[in-house]
Amino acid sequence: MHWCICLALLFPFSFVVGAVAFDPWAYTIQSTSCRAVDRVLDEEVNITIDYVDVNPTAEKSIIMVHGWPSLWSSWGYQIEEFKDEYRMIAIDVRGFGGSTHPADVQSSSTLADITGDLTCVLEHVGIQSAICLGHDWGAEVCYEAARRRPDVFHALVGVTVPYLHAAGPYADSAQLAAVMPKLAYQVFFENYTTEAVAELNKDIKRSLRATLRTVNSTPPDSFLTSTTTYLGAYDNVTEIPPIPFFTSSDEKYFVERFSSQKFDHTLIFYTRGNRYGTWQSTQAQGNYTIPQPVLSVLPLNDPVADWVFAARYLRSATLLPQLTTKTMEGAHWPHLEHSRVFNDILRAWLETLEHSLTPTQRVFSDEL
Questions:
Q1: What's the predicted TM-score (pTM) here?
Q2: 3-class secondary structure for the chain?
């Protein structure tokens, strides 16, 4: 039986395991202007960062940073869970949704640059200190933000991807793909960025559906293994089933908002200029340790990589003295695929974090 027909029969409707209702259309998008550097033009430019500000009177704050390809609304189940207890700032990362980007995609968005966007938004809304919650590349943004600005980010949560520190020699996408074959698509994104963008833009909904899958609704086995195409593994799939952890309304919102800028500026995490620039600036600074409390939530069924092994291989824990690592079932999007399990893990850690704050930290947090 045809692959997509099988999945359509098994999963005829979008489903969300253990999730509470979330309506992205009900939230108001706000924005602020932030300074950025265009390294091709060698000048500062203004970009706009869109965000949602939930429960602005709360004392404790979390800023939420998505990965690729995603939007602020991918944190919907966490917003619904914690919105009565925390002030939650969920952003569209530069180049995604309504957030703009310098003209240069190749070298003007290092993790340090995106850290600047986070601090810009926090300053704009009047938050002095926050927990950084990130998924996928957003996790790496949070690690970098905490490393560079411990005065602003007093704790962080990294989802799916562990701390990919810059303590060792630089490794490009080809070197990484040689070790982890499912990272071959990153070679395509790095070496053929324009062609990759064109392929992704051809059908926004299809590109998003192809990527956002779960353990029970998997992509073809060859997905992510090509260095010359991203969606080629789906060539024989007539219609890809809906994103399994979204309702039809959630998916419609995602597709519509993603369509505003398409994928034109979203491959910033994969270009050599940005990745090497991140590594180079960290090497120049020479500090790889993050002393703040860190929660790392790693899925056990991600087809991209064995992240538990990666964290152990990179010895990430040696640079994170207050690290708590939790594993859970799920593919690349565990906070969406099994939101109840993830939220329980996050809640338990947040409660422990509150108890572990020093008196000075607790007073400072209460004064926000």
A1: 0.92
A2: CCHHHHHHHHCCCCCCECCCCCCHHHCCCEEEEEEEEECCCCEEEEEEEEEEEECCCCCEEEEEECCCCCCHHHHHHHHHHHCCCEEEEEECCCCCCCCCCCCCCCCCCCHHHHHHHHHHHHHHHCCCCEEEEEECHHHHHHHHHHHHCCCCEEEEEEECCCCCCCCCCCCCHHHHHHHCHHHHHHHHHHHCHHHHHHHHHCCHHHHHHHHCCECCECCCCCCCCCCCCCCHHHCCCCCCCCCCCCCHHHHHHHHHHHCCCCCCCCHHHCCHHHHHHHHHHHHHHCCCCCCCCEEEEEECCCCCCCHHHHHHHHCHHHHCCCEEEEEECCCCCHHHHEHHHHHHHHHHHHHHHHHHCCHHHHHHHHCC
